[in-house]
Amino acid sequence: MRVNIVADETVISIAKEEKAILLTEDSDFGEWVFAHGIKDICVIFMRYHYSEVELITKHLLKLLQNEKYNFENSFFVLTTTKVRIRNI
After folding, report:
1. Predicted confidence (pLDDT) per residue in 52-71, tens digit
2. pTM score above 0.85
3. Is residue 3 part of a domain?
């Protein structure tokens, strides 16, 4: 099996270019956004235990379907019990 490794900067660039939501379990993207001043992106950082996969999936779908959230220039932290949002 071949594994392609893509740098975080490349992932960010693609997400911005495609105007896509960057969905991640990697906390490094929080550093990129806030310490390096990345703008014009939406990141959803999911924090959960592997035993909570079904529950976090339900919460993610609920979040994405909720019209009250602005998915532009935002950083979300999603857990199985709460959602935190910071504007970028």
Report:
1. 999 999 999 999 999 999 99
2. yes
3. no
